[in-house]
Amino acid sequence: MMQAKALKTRNHFTGPEARSLQSRLSPDSIPQSIRQSLLMKEGGFQVFEGLLDARFRHELLTEALAQLPEATACEVKIADAEEVRGGRPRRNFINSSGGPLQQAFYWAPWLLDFLRGLTHQALTPTGPCGTYSYYVRPGDYLDIHRDIVDCDVAVISCLNDGPKDDADGGRLCLYPERLFEPLSSIRATPQQGAVKVRLELGQTIVLYGGIVPHALLKVAEGQARIVSVLCYRAI
Q1: Fewest 10 Å CB contacts: which of 53, 64, 120, 232?
Q2: Is residue 87 scored above 70 in pLDDT?
């Protein structure tokens, strides 16, 4: 197991008590065990350094690049009417299934122990493997959403990101203060309560993706951002 170091971000949880993890979000819908978890006390997300060392990050990137010829373009120009989680948010990026290296990481006992300590002791992978997402074309992005019902907790690791400048291209944009608002309301005022996080090379964010609204901002021309995405069910 790598030595993981939590990095300080500007996230904090000051809104009403929260629950979910089903198809409806309201202050009384998040179980007490989730409300009291370490991750929720940090605002519903936290960035870590050290879950991937440089060698393993490079191996995962090599696997992701090998999967790219079989990847699928994901484009939705008009979002559906979903207001809570899942649905079809606007997006434009490339996606592929994971490979054996990612699968081993996904199911690693030490990683599950680490994540359960942050979230919930019943945390379990939602499937046999995760996915790779490629934001490699100018303007690739994923609009504001909450994750599908089977993805209560998302674990996203940055495998490649460059070249980049000081602009917002490729940043994660999270809304820890707007947990219970309809998605359409947040999309209409995207700057309100936005916490923008640059997930650096080799860093991993652990996120209550089914609770915290979030987006991936449009990548700049020439920017190539590749991430490993793992989904877990919390309850």
Answers
A1: 53
A2: yes
